Amino acid sequence: MPIATPEVYAEMLDRAKANEFAYPAINVTSSETLNAALRGFAEAESDGIIQVSTGGAEFASGTKVKDMVTGAVALAEFAHVVAEKYPVNIALHTDHCPKDKLEGYVRPLVAVSQERVDRGLNPLFQSHMWDGSAVPLDENLKIASELLDLTAKARIILEIEVGVVGGEEDGVAHEINEKLYTSPEDYLKTVEALGAGEKGRYLVAATFGNVHGVYKPGNVKLRPEILKQGQDVVAEKLGLPAGSKPFDLVFHGGSGSLLEEIHEALTYGVIKMNIDTDTQYAFTRPIVSHMFSNYDGVLKIDGEVGNKKAYDPRSYLKAAEQGMAARIAQACEHLKSSGRMIAG
């Protein structure tokens, strides 16, 4: 199927909300990891989200070029061509973008999509994330409001972060402290500034103890009830029935989370869960195994010529793709919760 249109992406998110499941949002940094993500979703028979961080986009442009927009556009264009061969819907998203990179990443990419929409085409990306967690909330929401105007016109969904995800990702680091929990006041300020969908659709990465990085299961102490509290207080403000979930929520920093905590979060309106650390390892581990098993073939030892079949990158990248795809398929299964996430 082609990359999801704005209408298809909206339907994907609505379906997740109604059925209490979440789509894995897989970070990619190259055509090979993008292929692995597509394969993983197809093998799980699941629609999904593929995303590119600022660092991932810079890397994808080439280590000599190091241009975020060039890399992001290249990966998106590649995805638009290759995804047509797969029987699932894929949405393209850009991950964490802090304030100092907005002018060099998100804003130019929104402009690219606006130019496409003006020509009667669909946007290049279906959503973008503004990460204002490092600035005061009022400033965060002011910038978010400005971006929401732009993304709505370009038929794109905006993702924002309200609260702080601890740990480090792509050079953005936060301490692990009480700021990891989005307060009821934060939720209220968000809906007051951005509306309840009438100004444009947006996703909220609310925080409830999430931490980026590598942790053993149980080491991350989540409080999913924080998400319910936020939904409840906003539902009351908007005059919605009890139990309503006005926000479309995103789960960042899930490494080390217990499966029951993840499933609880899904019942409170989480419809997108970012996955990066686990899939990086799943991609790299087969390469390590190949190198150890074929060391005398990948190295020209003692004047020998090695084994071209062993050091041909295709020989180990194929296994890497398989490993990452399998992990993505597993993530799709874990994020089903009580609902179904098969391709629509």
Describe the structure.
This protein has 344 residues and is of the alpha/beta class. The protein has one domain: Aldolase class I (TIM Barrel, Alpha-Beta Barrel), CATH 3.20.20. It has 13 helices and ten strands. The protein has an eight-stranded parallel β-barrel with strand order 1-2-3-4-5-8-9-10, surrounded by nine helices. A two-stranded antiparallel ribbon has the order 6-7. Strand 1, helix 2 and strand 2 form a beta-alpha-beta unit. The longest helix is centred in the C-terminal third of the chain and has 22 residues. The chain is globular. About 2% of the residues have low confidence. Keywords: Glycolysis, Lyase, Metal-binding, Zinc. It is an enzyme of class 4 (lyase). It catalyses: beta-D-fructose 1,6-bisphosphate = D-glyceraldehyde 3-phosphate + dihydroxyacetone phosphate.
How would the blueprint of this fold be written?
Blueprint: H1 6-19, E1 23-27, H2 31-43, E2 48-52, H3 54-60, H4 68-82, E3 90-94, H5 106-118, E4 127-130, H6 137-153, E5 157-162, E6 167-169, E7 172-174, H7 184-194, E8 202-206, H8 225-238, E9 248-251, H9 259-267, E10 270-275, H10 277-293, H11 295-298, H12 308-311, H13 313-334
Helix pairs in contact: 2-13, 3-4, 6-7, 7-8, 10-13
Binding site for dihydroxyacetone phosphate: 213, 253-255, 274-277
Enzyme class: lyase
Family: Belongs to the class II fructose-bisphosphate aldolase family.
